Amino acid sequence: YNCLIHFYKRSLMSEPTGTPSGYTYYVVEQFVSEVLDFSSQYGSDASISYTAHNIVGRPTKFPSYGDFSQTFVMRDYGPWWRSSPSGAVWRTPYSCPKPHQSRAANFIDVKFEHAVYPFRINVYETYNPGGLVALWAGDCQGTWKLLWDSSLSPTVQGQVTSQQPRQFSPPIQATDFATKQLRLEFDQSHLQYYTEIDAVSMMGTLDPVSASAKVASMLPEVMSPLLSRIVKRKLHIIPHPRRVVQECANQLNRHALNKFIRDHMQRERSPVRDNGYFDLLPREVILDIFSYLDISSLLRASEVCSTFRDLARDPFMFSVVDLRQVFHCCSSATLAWLLPLSSKLTKLDLSWCGSYGNISPASLAQFITAVGHQLTHLRLDNCHVATTLVLEAVGTTCPVLTDLSLANCHLLKSPDFQALTQLESLISLNLYRTTINQSCIISLLCNNRSLENISLAACNNINGDEVCLVLSHCQPHLHCLDLWRCSTLTGRGVAALSSCPHLTDLDLGWCLNVQASSGALVALTEACPHLARLFLTAHRQTGDRELAALSQLTRLAQLDILGNRNVSLAAVSDLLASVPTLTLLDVSFCEQLGEANIALLMVQYPGVSIKWSFTDAV
User: Fold this and answer.
1) Phi and psi, residue 571, nearest 5°
2) In this structure, are strands 106-127 and 196-205 parallel, antiparallel, or unpaired?
């Protein structure tokens, strides 16, 4: 079963909140019943290994520690993904100010059977713990409440150094609404290897505990405009009597009253607006200062005075807009507010935004239609309001678009991508885990002859060999190519990539039909001397001949040969000695190497992060 629920009474639950101890609450403990959405998974949709679905139900591996295929695993870890050539294109945020809290790289949305007011969340980590950076509660209709962020308790995050399983229970804030939806955000850039999550549990009360939650539970589902404004300003919550008395004392004492009188008289004598020293600064200088504010801080600054409001609404402040950092409050109204400020907008990131009904496809299509003629970069990763209507707007109104990312927009149907074939200026295209079909991708490749970066990872409706043949004829400037888990790729397609000599980043991980006997990998290595990152994960037949060819790459920095059965210790040692630029080498589950030998190589080559994974006994 997917969910375990315990009902029991606890009269002591009310003591920390000040509620009379005689009141009894029903406390529910439950595990995940459904996965709603996620940004990345190591496993394949056609498999059960390392997939997001493994987070459903009770822990199956905890408290064991090690690499287990029955857990949820994401694709990246450490600093290497962002520092790679492809990471600079797809994993690096746009160059605009970011909020102080950590920007998550991945997320997973999970659902529970019963809506509760949570007071504890347990995350069962069975391998390389410490990737979780934020917890959000949702109402499945687009409303989000931050429960915990790593910046709220940095000491808790900093304690993660030991390599052992962990049941992580961060201190969370109370919610005003009952929730059955959680979003877990991850940043694995400081971890040395993949983090693995076995399960997530949530404990909460069926009835509200805090005063604000009790008041919220009594509000009608459909509120009048006046009541909505009262609730938005939190005027419906009566503060504690002691706080009321204290505020009266602060505002009605002699010093405060005299200050109020002086300020009032000053305003009557000087009706002309006085901005103090800001009037002495050139507008360009103040705009430059404001350019260091993230979008949330910019909005708060605009509420200070009319001068700040005018400066904060300058179109130059909105040439690059990253709404992913405020996904929790991004809605159709946000796009309507942004539209008149977007005359200089060129880069827009709407990743993670609008799901669960906050943004309508019509409003997004209307916005793109209005600003599309000037957009050069557009990211819509996990933006599930990007429907056929939106893609048609992108295809018809974005003639100068060079960078487009639709990663994990898996709800789109194959024919929906036909609208994008009108684009002709693309340089970077990310279609990770989408349903694009063969005819659409071939049209895109033929119509955009300047493509340099392409991700077709986990795209199950394409023919890998045919795609590579088209790339060899149409894309001579190709730099980065991600064909991870492309089951239709064989040695024929890999050999065709030899006609792309400028390749620097190539991911062929889990392309299980590439036979080493074809000699395609050796030919590719000889034809592409600039390769800096190469992933050959689970290429079972790759052996010493291929490693000898790789030893000639003078710029190789990252190499993944996890699961290669025929690689010998001598070949790996020669590779390490021949390639001084190497910084990452994953040789996990390479049967001929041995843990003791790998330990010696780690000591001998301290500048290379050599990965050796293991599976603990259950």
Assistant:
1) -65, -40
2) antiparallel
Task: Say how far apart CA 552 and CA 612 lie, in whole Å.
Answer: 24
Instruction: List, in order, residues 6 or more apart from 135 with CB less than 8 Å away.
Output: 121, 146, 147, 148, 149, 170, 172, 182, 183, 184, 185
Spatial separation of the C-alpha atoms in residues 341 and 364, rounded to whole Å: 16
Alpha helices in 322-463 (DSSP H): 332-338, 361-371, 388-397, 438-447
Tell me the pLDDT band of 420, cut-offs 50, 70 and 90. Answer: very high
Rounded Cα–Cα distance for residues 354 and 370 (Å): 19
Q: Alpha carbon 600 to chain centroid distance? A: 36
Question: Which burial class, exposed, middle or buried, applies to 48 when counting CB atoms under 10 A from its CB (0-12, 13-18, 19+)?
Answer: exposed
Tokens of 58: 């009770």
The full DSSP string for 189-250 is TT-SS--EEEEEEEEEESS--SHHHHHHHTS-SS--HHHHHHHHTTTTSPPPHHHHHHHHHH
Residue 236: pLDDT band with limits 50, 70, 90:
low
Euclidean distance between the first and final Cα of the chain, in Å? 20
The pTM for the full model equals 0.89
Give yes or no for residue 537 having a pLDDT over 50. yes
The residue to which tokens 């746009």 are assigned? 94
3-class state of residue 363 by DSSP: helix
Rounded Cα distance, 398 and 424, in Å: 10
Query: How many degrees, rounded to 5, is the angle at CA 312 between CA 308 and CA 314?
Result: 120
Asked if residue 82 lies in contact with residue 128, where contact means CB atoms within 8 angstroms, the answer is no
Q: Give residue 494's identity as a one-letter amino acid code.
A: V
The amino acid that residue 32 corresponds to is: V
Distance CA 431, CA 440 (A): 12
d(CA 500, CA 471): 8
319 CB contacts (<8 Å, ≥6 apart)? 344, 345, 346, 347
Q: Could you tell me which of 568, 569, 572 has the C-alpha nearest to residue 559?
A: 572
